[in-house]
Design a protein that fits this description.
By secondary structure, this protein is mainly α. The protein has seven helices and three strands, in the order H-H-E-H-E-H-H-H-E-H. The chain has a three-stranded antiparallel beta sheet. Helix 2 packs parallel to helix 7 and helix 4 (80-92) runs antiparallel to helix 7 (142-156).
Length: 157
């Protein structure tokens, strides 16, 4: 009944400015985020590289993203035949994994009407079926990355 993790479309009805207190908090949070070194995502990238032959596409590497470029989440493409099992296992272990976009825009309630007659979108469907993201926040520990590696290795290789 809470619709957790569900993507819902709501038309934007207006834009308003943040109040002073929220602007101050936002500015401080952005500064804190930018000060953090990308060590966690570098460790995740090395972990993905260690899974050579697993069929995982390391999107930041494939897109030639500079190593120092900060990411909010670490995106991967995983074979669609196992992606949901990898997601379920990592989620059960509390690893903060996400599928981000479980559906393409024309299938989301509210947008389906706006986008009716457009498509099909096979590339978008394949991408959505393969996308998996890993957390990159400061709370991710080396042990978490090792757990992610062992779990993915057991399901993918």
């Amino acid at each position: 009944f809470l619709h957790l993790g569900e993507t819902r479309y709501h038309p934007l009805e207006g834009i308003g400015a943040l109040d002073v207190a929220r602007r101050h908090i936002l500015k401080a949070n952005i500064a804190l985020y930018l000060e953090q070194k990308p060590e966690i995502q570098c460790s995740i990238s090395r972990m993905i590289d260690s899974l050579e032959g697993s069929g995982i596409i390391n999107l930041p590497v494939a897109c030639q993203l500079p190593a120092q470029q900060r990411l909010l989440r670490y995106p991967l493409l995983v074979d669609s035949s196992v992606r949901d099992r990898v997601y379920a296992r990592l989620r059960a272990l509390g690893m903060g994994v996400s599928v981000m976009y479980p559906a393409i825009l024309p299938t989301i309630s509210g947008l389906d009407i706006l986008l009716a007659g457009q498509g099909p979108f096979p590339a978008a469907e394949q991408f959505a079926a393969r996308l998996l993201t890993l957390p990159t926040h400061a709370g991710v520990r080396r042990e978490d990355i090792q757990t992610m590696a062992a779990t993915m290795r057991s399901l993918l290789v």
